[in-house]
Amino acid sequence: MSFQRSVSYLAATLLALSTSLAFAQTPSEQAQDHPPHHEGKEAWQQQSHPHQMAKRLHHMMKVLHATEDQRHQILLIAENARHAMAVELAAIPKEAKLTRRAIRDKNMTQARADIHAVLTPEQRVKLDEYMAKHQPQHKQG
């Protein structure tokens, strides 16, 4: 797995955690936005409970042996990304799914770059190994 994909996965985990707290939807809204039979990473992120996402994030930081400063920075990145996305998404109607996805993608890209700057080269290797082991497998269709 590439480093960029690993960091993207971590960033997606961070953003999924933060946005799920900011934009809780009713079950009927979730059914409209996301059909129940998605596959792959996106489905895993959408279906995970915020508490589970937080546990995964903390576990990843533990596996990486992140310093207290790095932990603080990563959590701050997640909070800043959540806030930036909340502000932007609040101005977009729920019906504008493509615009909402573009905003999420932009914020994930920025979070990915910010997280990249926080990790040491050794931690990047550990992250790649962790992601390869724990990332949901895409079904070949």
Automatic annotation (TrEMBL):
Residues 1-24 form the signal peptide. Residues 31-42 have a biased composition (Basic and acidic residues). Residues 26-54 are annotated as: Disordered. Keywords: Signal. This is Periplasmic heavy metal sensor. It comes from Jezberella montanilacus.
